[in-house]
């Protein structure tokens, strides 16, 4: 029997808004395995929800940090150093594009909306990895969350699809540079899941149902399955895997169409 004991490991999870967040599904698996976990959240409005989730989770801590703010990241990683000394696992579960950019035509994307989507959803992986680097050690691992609209056109995903393509490319460049220190960097491509971020995608409900029908497994993957894949990629179980985009979507992305 293989059991995972992460009681001598530390993790930072960035991007838990509530119990439905994919970041929370990942954190739950890390906590179940005994890992010590710190959390960052974007705005004070999210703190009560996070505090509620963490009431019975021993040894956890939280700090506000807007991932696009260099000052916030400096303070966050100073806190990680103070709490943990070193960092084994880093979870980037952050994404945002203005709703207007997803309602209209892709061709009409404004420079401001392009920059916002790219900066929040892709560049933050790079800046967070840079801030974390001094605390990472041989065997440390970074995981982010992406979506298949980076590879194929998904209606209304628009600039977010481009931002996810940038995130996946950044994953490979970071993996190539950080590998020499024994640090792995991967991205999980999750199928559609009902979260707050998903609600900002016009027509998400219809897409959710279609993806389930198209998938070989005849259903959508679950947040818990994202958590299990993250546990594999972050921990020593995934020790030979880096620079990859690994899908957890019940197989939906392999299909072009399905006959009834
Ligand atoms: P979620 O619960 O809304 O999580 C997204 C998180 O990103 C929120 O906590 C949000 O905080 C945070 N965030 C946004 N801008 C930020 C910033 N500047 N600094 C720090 N945090 C910021 O939704 P989710 O679906 O779990 O999203 C997590 C990741 O999974 C995203 O990268 C998303 O694209 C990806 N993903 C989701 C799906 C899906 O169907 N749900 C599928 C594939 C990939 P606020 O609430 O304050 O904005």
TrEMBL record:
InterPro entries: Enoyl-ACP_Rdtase_NADH (IPR014358), NAD(P)-bd_dom_sf (IPR036291), SDR_fam (IPR002347). The active site is at 147 (proton acceptor), 157 (proton acceptor). GO terms for biological process: fatty acid biosynthetic process. It catalyses: a 2,3-saturated acyl-[ACP] + NAD(+) = a (2E)-enoyl-[ACP] + NADH + H(+). Pathway: Lipid metabolism. GO terms for molecular function: enoyl-[acyl-carrier-protein] reductase (NADH) activity. It comes from Deinococcus aquiradiocola. NAD(+) binds at residues 15, 42, 94, 164. Belongs to the short-chain dehydrogenases/reductases (SDR) family. FabI subfamily. Keywords: Fatty acid biosynthesis, Fatty acid metabolism, Lipid biosynthesis, Lipid metabolism, NAD, Oxidoreductase. It holds the Pfam family adh_short_C2. Coiled coil: none annotated. Its EC number is 1.3.1.9. This is Enoyl-[acyl-carrier-protein] reductase [NADH]. Substrate binds at residue 97.
